[in-house]
Each structure stands twice: as C-alpha cells, then as structure tokens.
Write a structure and sequence with these properties.
Oligomer: homodimer
Number of strands of chain A: 12
Distance between the termini of chain A: 31 Å
Number of helices of chain A: 15
Shape of chain A: globular
C-alpha cells in the first residue's frame, strides 16, 4: 500500500522528532468528497468515533421516548466519557430508571481518566464498576433498547444479539457500506467493530449532519442526537477533553467524536458535511492536532472559539521542569491539502 | 523524504488497525552496517537511549572511584527507572554520600510509573521529589562528577556547563559525530539532546560493546558500565520494564536502553555490535516489538530467554473484559529485513 502523507509533526528544539501519517476526508451527505488527504478508501475501525451513529436505534426503537431519556443521557449514549463522578452518577441513575444496575454492563471496568478523578478514586479506595468505563453510556443505551424491545439483555455485546443487529443495520445504512463484506473485530468494550472505508465513515457523519434525504424517523433521531451532544458537551467527553472543548468552542457548527487508535469524526450540521480522520499509527496527539486544523479550514470556529482552543492549536511539549521543549504541529502537506479544498 | 518501511503492525480481529514505520541499524565498532531497514542516516534524538554513553565521564573523571559507586549506582546512572521505592531510596542514599540531596537535581518532578508505585504514592500522599524522575540516576551521575571535579553544580543541565561539556565531548567521540553541526534540543529532563544520524547512535553503542580500539580508560569505563547494567537490571528500568526484562532474559548478550519517542539502543558485547532503532511516530509499543525481534534475529536469546520474553514476542491487545482483541506484531518487511542480514 502507498504511504499516507505526514499530517502532523512533533518538534523538539529546531528539528522534527516524530512524524504521524494518516488520511482524512470531508464529504457531503451523498458521499461526495469536498476535501481529502491520503487514501479515502483506507479501511479503518471507527472505534468510539461511530458512537453517534450507533445511538440511532436507541431513539428509532422508541426506547428513548419510553424512558424519557434526557439530552444528558443521549449525550452519554454518544460519549467516550472520562469516568468523572458526574458521569458515573448519571449512568447509575439512568440504569436504575430502566430497572438495571452497572452489573448488567458488559463493557468491563476502566479506571477514571482525568488525573483528579483517577487520584480521587485511588485515595478513597472507590470500588470501580463498569459504569466508570468510557463506553458505559453507549452500553446503557444498548440496554435501554433491549428493555424497550423486550430482548433479554444478557450477551447484548455479541454480533448476533438483537441489540447489535439493530446497531449494525443502522451503521451499514448510514455509511452506505455492506458490513457483511468487511473485517469484523471486537472493540475494547467488547462490541463488534467493522473495518470500513474512511470515506464511508465520513458519509455516515455527513448524513447525521444533513439527514434531509433520510426517512423521517431517522432524520429526527439524527437531529435529536446532535442537539443532545451540543447541549451537554461535558457528557460526551469530560473535563479538558478534546471533543468537549471543541463543542464548547463551536456549539453551533461542530459535533465531534473521538475513537481509540487515532480516529476522529465530526458532523457539521450548518454545512451538511461529515469528517473522518485516521492517524495511521493510532496516536491521539496527532489526531487532535489534525482535527482542529481541519475544522478551522472548514470555517467552523469564530475568532473567540479559536482562542478557547489555543491549547490544541498550539500544543506545546514541555520539560518536566516546565520549560518549552517542542510542539505538535500540522505538517506542510496537511496545510496544503486544506488550502486546496474545494470552495464550500 | 522517502517513507521508512512499516516495521510493526497492530491488529484487531482479522485486520491491521494501525501501522508503525521506522528505521533500525546494526553496526560493528567501525560503524560498518551488518543489518538495517529504513534510512540509517535519519537524524534522531536519542533521548534516554544514550544514557550508557552519557555515563562514561562519571567513570573517566575519577568520580565513580572517588565516591566508591556501586554497580547499582552505575546502573542507575544509565537508567530510565520507574520511580519505585527501591529506586528512590538508592538515589537518596547516593546523593547523601556526595553531600547533596534531591533538591540539587534539576530534572523536574515525575510521578512513579508502575501502577503499584503510582497508586501507593497517591494513597500515602507522598511528597514527590526529583528523585522520582526516571532520569534521577543520570542526573545524580552528573552531580557526582561535578563534586569530584570541583564544578559548582548549579545549572549543570545547561549545554555550556562543564558537566554537559564532558558528556557532549564523549558522546561526539563515541558516535563519530560532530555534535556542533547537528540540531540541539532540550530533553524532557532539561539536558541537551542532539539530533544525530541513527547509524552514529548505533556506532556509539557498538563501541561500548567492543571498546577494543578505544583508549584504555574509555575501554575500562565501557566495560564497567555494561557490567553494572547486567548485574543490576532492575535499576536500569524496573518491575516489568522492557529493558529490565530483556537483560534478565539475556544477561550475557544484551545491554538495552530505551528512550522516549520510540527509540531503543542495545550494545551486544559478545558480538561487538550496536543497535539503534527509531519508530517514526514515537510509539513505544512498536519500538519494543521491533527491538525484541531484532535481538532475536541477532541470536541474542536462548530458548528459555525467549520464553521469559513471551509478553513482548506475543504482545496481545485485550478488551477491558479481558478477551483477546488483537496483537502487536512485526511486519513482513521487518521480518524480511532481518532474514536478509549478513551472516555474523
């Protein structure tokens, strides 16, 4: 396979120390490419970046209405949260409302991810449950749909369980991809993950952003999920998290979602576009740097929004004593691919 | 610049999820290449992988003898330790013996790196000092040389301080590189770091492994440092650490050292060879996978040694619930470059 371009460089002193290659693609709801770099057909595991697509059946099944899910809970269904106390409490109360508990979650246990929440859990000797897992909101959504549809929730993470059949069917429709024909892996939280072309993933996000050609129920589900993410950005990620900060800085224009191994997606509702990005080596530092510059080139940020995101636009590497040692910056090839994009 | 080959692949289910490019080179003490992949002239910041070379002046200056440094202390001078209690106690007692304390270390503060040491420090509310920093042994070596040579230790991390002038001169000689002509950055611990060609870094390690053409004092220093690393592998890294485990599994044949941003070096004393490896994107998971397979191809491990290193030869990626999801494995191009090496 031909090499994807270097998208991000990590500098130290006057030299480039490390380089991150990757591909990104921006499409409209028909799948037409507006802007790209690297191979748009590169297959990628979306990991958590597909969560807003995976949450559609929670609404279409009627489960969200039946249990009166709030925007906060819908945001959690689309979230990779950090296991902060507010995230965990919200999951516990949601599960209690559908008659279940964190013990029904099959995602496994993950320690909290912010330094404060992590140290607090250690200091207090808190017994961690699956509610702390970054995917516990997505899994709570699966469980809610199971209860509403009368499915036995046990084994809801398996590909042939009704919960995953619903999710896979929706994901295939939204991304225009026959998922029976692509590689199938297991995500970190145990559910199926499909190796689909980057452009198809971007198309799924574009159809969330512009659901005008979707069936009415799907279009309403898409709008409701994107509104929930915009209303409750803290519940999509958490304190200082990239997608939370981006959505706080651009609440009208961007719904962004990250996935492990260097994946980011975004739905841009005011432009009707979808974005998908994969850093070849999986580095999140590079994915964040590339994504914030792609969104900037797509005119997603106000001047004030850009100021709020300074830590991502100008990511500094410091010595342990606090002196500046280097930076994470977009490569010349990323900058040039962004400046040559089609006029929107 | 032309792309370095993919050396390591990260799989998930039946597909490759992420790819790591890089270069490595194996040379003898004259700098002649025995085996390589990618660009051997690629400039790299060695980061901590050069520590065994940076420790030479500690011995050549007479400081190690004057203060009766033990193998454990010399191993720490070459170490990136994990801030485990035994590491910190050894540093504190060493500094006390030269009349100083952790307050003289200019490396900054870093929290312990093993889960056990990290959680213990949080639980007990331990006040962290620079002794916990992974480079505190190297810095204690610099301070020891300052005291022995009558240099005021203050500012010993700056390029023009006598401590760093000694280290830079030695590093330039060992690597056959005019360091005044390469990019100069600041390492994470504050000291100068030079952007030198990968092959030169490997040459420095080969001359540690085979110091037969070096001046007598340098040859003795090289042997003493390599012996110290072999005698005290725990103090070079720590519990479960890659270089500690490799040296425990191959105590006669390998002295390995890692550096941030995907760098590994090794000195192979029984073969008189040096190895240097850089993963382009800085990923340590890829650097460990590539390094263990390079050392295997160079016949460094017994069958039992390979068994002991199974966690690195067969690095498994699991779901949070503990099921196997994928692996980190050498690429076909790494395997083929290793099988086409010159016969040793």
């Amino acid at each position: 396979m031909s090499a994807n371009p270097i998208l991000v460089e990590v500098t130290r002193g006057p030299a480039v120390e490390s380089r991150h290659r990757g591909a990104f693609v921006v499409v409209d709801a028909s799948g037409k490419i507006v802007c790209a770099a690297g191979d748009p057909n590169m297959p990628v595991y979306p990991r958590s970046s597909a969560k807003p697509l995976q949450a559609i059946p929670l609404i279409e099944s009627g489960a969200a209405d039946r249990f009166g899910l709030t925007d906060r809970e819908l945001a959690l269904a689309c979230a990779s949260h950090q296991g902060e106390p507010a995230h965990v409490r919200a999951i516990e109360s949601w599960l209690a409302r559908i008659g279940l508990s964190p013990g029904s979650l099959e995602c496994g246990v993950q320690a909290p991810r912010t330094p404060e929440a992590s140290e607090d859990a250690i200091r207090k000797g808190i017994r961690l449950t699956p509610a702390y897992h970054n995917c516990s909101g997505k899994h709570s959504g699966f469980l809610t749909a199971c209860v509403a549809c009368g499915n036995n929730p046990s084994g809801y993470i398996e590909p042939d369980h009704p919960a995953q059949r619903r999710v896979t069917a929706t994901l295939g429709e939204m991304t225009d991809c026959d998922l029976t024909r692509v590689a199938l892996g297991r995500d970190g939280c145990g559910i199926p993950v499909y190796h689909l072309p980057l452009q198809n993933l971007a198309t799924g996000m574009a159809r969330l952003a512009d659901p005008s050609t979707q069936p009415k129920a799907r279009a309403e589900a898409a709008e409701r999920l994107l509104n929930a993410m915009a209303s409750e950005p803290f519940y999509v990620n958490g304190t200082g998290g990239f997608t939370t900060e981006v959505m706080k800085a651009a609440p009208r224009t961007v719904r962004a979602k990250g996935g492990f191994e260097g994946v980011y997606t975004a739905a841009l509702p005011t432009k009707g576009l979808g974005v998908a990005l994969k850093i070849e080596d999986g580095a999140m530092r590079a994915a964040e740097c590339a994504m914030v510059h792609i969104l900037q080139a797509l005119d997603c940020f106000s001047a004030r929004g850009e100021e709020q995101l300074d830590q991502f636009f100008n990511a500094i590497i410091r010595t342990f004593a606090g002196n500046i040692a280097g930076s994470v910056r977009p490569s010349a090839s990323l900058t040039s691919s962004l400046s040559s994009r089609l006029s929107l």
